[in-house]
Write a structure and sequence with these properties.
GO molecular function: flavin adenine dinucleotide binding; tRNA binding; tRNA dihydrouridine synthase activity
Bound molecules: flavin mononucleotide
Keywords: Flavoprotein, FMN, Oxidoreductase, RNA-binding, tRNA processing
CATH superfamily of the largest domain: Aldolase class I
InterPro entries: Aldolase_TIM, dsRBD_dom, DUS-like_FMN-bd, DUS2_DSRM, tRNA-DUS-like, tRNA_hU_synthase_CS
Cofactor: FMN
Shape: globular
Number of helices: 19
CATH architecture of the largest domain: Alpha-Beta Barrel
CATH topology of the largest domain: TIM Barrel
Distance between the termini: 67 Å
Strand content: 15-25%
Protein name: DRBM domain-containing protein
Helix content: 40-55%
Number of domains: 3
Length: 501
């Protein structure tokens, strides 16, 4: 029943689909499902308010695009392997916010879906999920705003209503918004997974609309194998089939040649988890779902005790794979850093020299910062001290600083999570543009920053090894205080304004 992926807009007819699943539908599971034969994969539901705060970051080391929250959590990670086949599902109750998020991810996903089926309180109390089912005007507003606002197909996933007639009336209204397809979970919002799926409702929906209907809800009672998917599709008269639990237990159910053993699948899952630096708790969660009743076994308990992807690999006897893969990633990171230094050509935008750089604290020794280097250089050259101007944007409260040095302006194009980091990033742009050292670990010592600081640094390093008590004492000296010794700081209007140092 499956058709090859057509180039261009994603088509939802005659497809097998990995359902959206919170915590399960992250990148490793989606890639695995695609490898085994799924045509389309939905990501886990992501809430619009959280996504709206994310920044899109190209991760050159992992070769992914990450949507990163202000607290640095990766909310959504995607890569070229799933390009054209990944559907972004969001939880929303607000057309404009939904559109803002859809626009943010639009170029990295194949379609955008709105969850209208989640009966959990955290969803419904915000008017999202299945709460939308009793507010058809809101549904229409959200879906038509999305359909008109983005170039990618828009879909939605619903549960059935308590009568056939109400369900059919609702989907007819939904179809009029211009959505490309509709996924129907054949259960009412109060029904639990143990209740039988209502194939007759899905069938009535399929007969009443002309867009593809994706049948969902068949795991466990109806769909236990690849062949069962086709039976479920026939029983519902739908165009496509979407699987959640059956795929979570063993994603190789999408394999036409027959499912593989869970042990083999778990190993493949771990390969993707390590390769794409998946959150270890998420990795563990998904593996535990695959273990099912074996989760209480001695093996399951060992898995449960693992805290990192490395420890998970140890439990599975995959330490060699872990070491090899992480070494490759580290090598790529190092190569990018070396090349990056050469290829980060400064660009003049208006009258500001810009570069896409970030201040990574771990790249610098304790108590050494690019700002200090710039200040010391300005003193040595008998120039005015650098002046920092910082602005904060409202959508994610991110900061961007411009440093004025010798009547020229320098700025990083990347927004930082704090004013301090934004100023450091601006200082890095200035130093790199001028070809000056910035104090990074491994960089040859220029002698720009005074000896006392270097000695302090040595002390701190010694302390790390020698005495935890003394270490605490030294690390209690906050960075600002340290900088204050060599720079004056003037803050105008709280966080945003001008500082000199
Ligand atoms: C672990 C888990 C997480 C889920 N998360 C979502 C979600 O994020 N969005 C959504 O629309 N449905 C979610 N669902 C519901 C499934 O997508 C699906 O509608 C339901 O499980 C019925 O399909 P099945 O019989 O194939 O399991 C989730 C289900 C499970 C088991």
């Amino acid at each position: 029943m499956m058709m090859a992926n057509s180039v261009g807009r994603l088509c939802f007819a005659h497809k097998t689909v990995l359902a959206p699943m919170v915590r399960v539908g992250t990148l490793p599971m989606r890639l695995l499902a695609l490898d085994y034969g799924a045509d389309i994969v939905y990501c886990e539901e992501l809430i619009d308010i959280k996504m709206a705060q994310c920044e899109r970051v190209v991760n050159d080391v992992l070769e992914t695009v990450d949507f990163v929250a202000p607290d640095e959590r990766v909310m959504f990670r995607t890569c070229s392997k799933e390009k054209g086949r990944v559907v972004f599902q969001m939880g929303t109750a607000d057309p404009e916010r939904a559109l803002a998020v859809a626009k943010l991810v639009e170029n990295d996903v194949a379609a955008v879906d709105v969850n209208m089926g989640c009966p959990k309180e955290y969803s419904t109390k915000g008017g999202m999920g299945s709460a939308l089912l009793s507010d058809p005007e809101k549904i229409e507003a959200i879906l038509s705003t999305l359909v008109n606002g983005i170039s990618k197909p828009v879909t939605c996933k619903i549960r059935i209503l308590s009568t056939l007639e109400d369900t059919v009336n609702l989907v007819k209204r939904i179809e009029k918004t211009g959505v490309a397809a509709i996924a129907v979970h054949g259960r009412m919002k109060d029904e639990r997974p143990r209740h039988p799926v209502h194939c007759d409702y899905i069938q009535a929906v399929a007969e009443s609309v002309s867009i593809p209907v994706i049948a969902n809800g068949g795991s466990s009672d109806m769909v236990k194998s690849f062949e069962d998917m086709e039976k479920f599709r026939e029983a519902t008269g739908a165009s496509s089939v979407m699987l959640a639990r059956a795929a979570m237990w063993n994603p190789s159910i999408f394999r036409q040649q027959g499912a593989l053993s869970v042990e083999e699948v778990m190993e493949e899952y771990i390969r993707y988890a390590v390769r794409y630096d998946n959150n270890p708790f998420n990795t563990k969660y998904c593996l535990c779902q695959m273990l099912r009743d074996k989760v209480e076994s001695p093996f399951g308990k060992r898995l449960h005790a693992a805290q990192t992807n490395e420890e998970i690999c140890e439990v599975f006897g995959m330490t060699d794979f872990y070491n090899k893969t992480t070494a490759e990633l580290e090598a790529r990171k190092a190569a990018l850093q070396t090349n990056g230094d050469q290829s980060e050509h400064p660009k003049l935008v208006d009258d500001v020299v810009t570069m896409p750089v970030r201040f990574e604290r771990r790249d610098y020794p304790p108590q050494i910062t690019p700002k200090m280097y710039l200040l010391e250089w300005s003193r040595k050259e008998k120039l005015d001290q650098p002046v920092y101007e910082t602005e904060q944007r409202t959508q994610d409260r991110g900061f961007q600083s411009t440093v004025i040095m010798d009547n020229k302006k320098y700025r990083s194009t990347l927004w930082e999570k704090s004013k301090k980091f934004a100023e450091q990033a601006a200082a890095i742009v200035c130093l790199r543009t001028l070809g000056l050292p910035e104090g990074r670990i491994g960089e040859e010592h220029s002698g720009l920053v005074n000896k006392r600081k270097r000695d302090d640094k040595k002390c701190a390093a010694l302390d790390d090894n020698e005495s935890a008590g003394r270490k605490r004492h030294i690390s209690e000296v906050p960075q600002e205080e340290e900088e204050e010794m060599i720079c004056r700081t003037k803050v105008v209007n709280g966080v945003c304004g001008q500082t000199t140092c």
